[in-house]
Amino acid sequence: MTVAPNTGSRMAFIGLGEMGKAMTRNLHRDGNLTSPLTLWNRTKSTADAHSADLGDCKVAETVQEAVESADIIWSCLQDQSAVEQVFDSIFAADVNITGKLFVDSSTIAPEWSNATAKRVIEAGGEFVSMPVMGEPVVAAAKKLICIPSGKPESVDRIRPYLEGVVCRAIVDLSGEEPGTSSLLKLMGNFLIMTTMETVAEVNVFADKSGIGTKNMNKLMGAMFPNPPHAIYNHRMLTGEYYEGTPIVEVYKALALTGQVLDMAKSCGASVPIYEVAREHLKLVQEHEGSKADITGIYGAVRVKSGLPYRNGAAEGSSNEK
């Protein structure tokens, strides 16, 4: 489909975690916005600092102000509870949303996406559920995968701001219920967790067998040179899994993986690899606390294999070959 040029829509972005910051930086730079981007975050100082960093942005005092100032309201919030609070406050304030497009990139339950869409549409607005696949570093590089679903005409309104602006690819679910993209995002989390578990296990296997992680890294680089394998492998072997800034904090991952497992059980799907990965996340939290990085799953597999949780790479004392 040919993407129409941007038509001067005013945009507000709600939620400035690491993902939101990366996405708004790209929107500000490459989105061809004709009006200043409006920012809102529950912690206003975060929005103020980000606005100062980007330049030529407006910071809304309230989420209602952000909605009133924009034609497209794009949200990327920490969890379902945050999404519920934001939309409840919008409806409680009786903001006129007629003709406004709401795009939500948060990771929430499919049924809640559908329920939110119903509320928005009944109030005269439009709604697109558009979760994204990728970590903040991927978002910064404009290499996310966007998964939009909702009415085709609503998806078309956000399309000019996607490929080449915030993402490298679109998994287009236009015409599907909004909850469909939320469901597919949960399936994507399955792929992420099982990939991470595989990379962790094979590196520990290589270490214990004597072939060494350096040799395994050569093979990994030849077979899987691109993300996500390359990102997880790098964080594990360099010690960033315990020393670097978390790409996803383990308590968030535990909440999401619990949701995915509940969904699997409800439909009768057997997912043993995923269950093992989640047990390893619990071990990560026991060793390093709730704010530890999700790739600490490597440390958990090390512990289960009789090795120290930390490989010493970050301190320059690694014994891995």
TrEMBL record:
<feature type="active site">
    <location>
        <position position="185"/>
    </location>
</feature>
<feature type="domain" description="3-hydroxyisobutyrate dehydrogenase-like NAD-binding">
    <location>
        <begin position="179"/>
        <end position="299"/>
    </location>
</feature>
<dbReference type="Pfam" id="PF03446">
    <property type="entry name" value="NAD_binding_2"/>
</dbReference>
<dbReference type="InterPro" id="IPR051265">
    <property type="entry name" value="HIBADH-related_NP60_sf"/>
</dbReference>
<dbReference type="InterPro" id="IPR015815">
    <property type="entry name" value="HIBADH-related"/>
</dbReference>
<dbReference type="InterPro" id="IPR029154">
    <property type="entry name" value="HIBADH-like_NADP-bd"/>
</dbReference>
<dbReference type="InterPro" id="IPR006115">
    <property type="entry name" value="6PGDH_NADP-bd"/>
</dbReference>
<dbReference type="GO" id="GO:0016491">
    <property type="term" value="F:oxidoreductase activity"/>
</dbReference>
<dbReference type="GO" id="GO:0051287">
    <property type="term" value="F:NAD binding"/>
</dbReference>
<dbReference type="InterPro" id="IPR036291">
    <property type="entry name" value="NAD(P)-bd_dom_sf"/>
</dbReference>
<protein>
    <submittedName>
        <fullName>6-phosphogluconate dehydrogenase-like protein</fullName>
    </submittedName>
</protein>
<dbReference type="Pfam" id="PF14833">
    <property type="entry name" value="NAD_binding_11"/>
</dbReference>
<keyword id="KW-0560">Oxidoreductase</keyword>
<keyword id="KW-0520">NAD</keyword>
<dbReference type="GO" id="GO:0050661">
    <property type="term" value="F:NADP binding"/>
</dbReference>
<comment type="similarity">
    <text>Belongs to the HIBADH-related family. NP60 subfamily.</text>
</comment>
<dbReference type="InterPro" id="IPR008927">
    <property type="entry name" value="6-PGluconate_DH-like_C_sf"/>
</dbReference>
<dbReference type="InterPro" id="IPR013328">
    <property type="entry name" value="6PGD_dom2"/>
</dbReference>
<feature type="domain" description="6-phosphogluconate dehydrogenase NADP-binding">
    <location>
        <begin position="11"/>
        <end position="164"/>
    </location>
</feature>
